[in-house]
Design brief:
Blueprint: H1 6-22, H2 25-53, H3 56-62, H4 64-72, H5 78-90, H6 98-127, H7 136-148, H8 151-154, H9 157-181, H10 188-204, H11 210-222, H12 229-260
Length: 271
């Protein structure tokens, strides 16, 4: 595969952030909706594999197919724009303001949530034949996940909130490495390989991804998970999204930008 040097692909990251700010509202929402829907379906696929095989590793190995599909189609996840769009602001690209960054994030959040929620309803409907039968082992598994990752954190108070924040940070460190990884190669196979590795890691390690959770928790509630919307927002979505922002921007976007775009002069060593 053709490899692109960091000094080149980091400039592409800034360009991509600028392009997302200038994208129309319609296109931003459609791309975000499709990204949320595909990632929700991938999460359901991975959970199905785990339930049927009893192996979290197998599910983790297969989960990245959804991430790869949506990024090859140029759809947008909130976790990705958290990393790319602020770089255009820092680089002082024309027309890119703090307000425009917030607009992009807000639209992508809404689109991702709508897509993930749509798939949550689709999956809950087909598992129960229109809510007429029990959802079985899959519904029970997702209900268990929903409860453990909301009221389970709540039981530990502030420490639980900080735990999920850090898990969100570590998640988008890896996911954003996948986003950036797609830019280091010009071949489809090279892009897929670069995206696969970090996404598999985050899923297997149980880190928290705000868009995956936009699918998991509504689906869990529909299927009878014992927690409330407030529990989900306060003890999962909010700290996860904040952690995703910090992880993607501070651990991926900013370090790459400051060492490959705003490089410092080389040292002079006396001879």
């Amino acid at each position: 595969m053709a490899y692109i040097e960091p000094s080149e692909f980091v400039t592409k990251m800034v360009d991509a952030g600028e392009q997302k700010v200038y994208m129309s509202t319609k296109d931003t929402l459609i791309r975000a909706f499709m990204a949320g829907a595909i990632l929700g379906l991938a999460a359901m696929f991975a959970i199905t594999v785990i339930v049927k095989t009893g192996s979290p590793l197998v599910g983790s190995l297969l989960f990245p197919v959804g991430f790869i599909m949506l990024y090859l189609m140029k759809f947008d996840l909130l976790t990705g724009v958290f990393t790319l769009v602020p770089l255009a602001l820092i680089d002082k690209r024309p027309g890119v303001t703090f307000g425009q960054v917030m607009r992009n994030w807000g639209l992508v959040f809404c689109g991702n949530f709508a897509g993930a929620l749509t798939v949550a309803f689709f999956m809950s409907f087909i598992l129960t034949y229109g809510y007429n039968v029990d959802g079985g082992a899959l519904a029970a598994k997702v209900g268990e996940i929903g409860e453990s990752r909301t009221v389970g954190y709540q039981a530990h108070g502030l420490d639980g909130w900080i735990t999920i924040f850090i898990r969100g940070m570590l998640c988008n460190w890896m996911v954003s490495m996948g986003v950036v990884g797609a830019m280091i190669s010009t071949s489809a196979t090279g892009k897929m390989a670069a995206m696969w590795m970090p996404v598999m890691l985050f899923f297997f390690m149980g880190f928290e991804h705000s868009i995956v959770n936009m699918f998991l928790f509504p689906f869990s509630m529909i299927m009878g998970g014992d927690f409330t919307v407030a529990d989900y927002l306060l003890w999962n979505e909010l700290p996860t999204a904040l952690g995703n922002l910090v992880g993607g921007f501070l651990l991926v976007g900013l370090p790459l930008y400051y060492t490959h775009v705003r490089t410092s002069p080389e040292r002079s060593i006396g001879r």
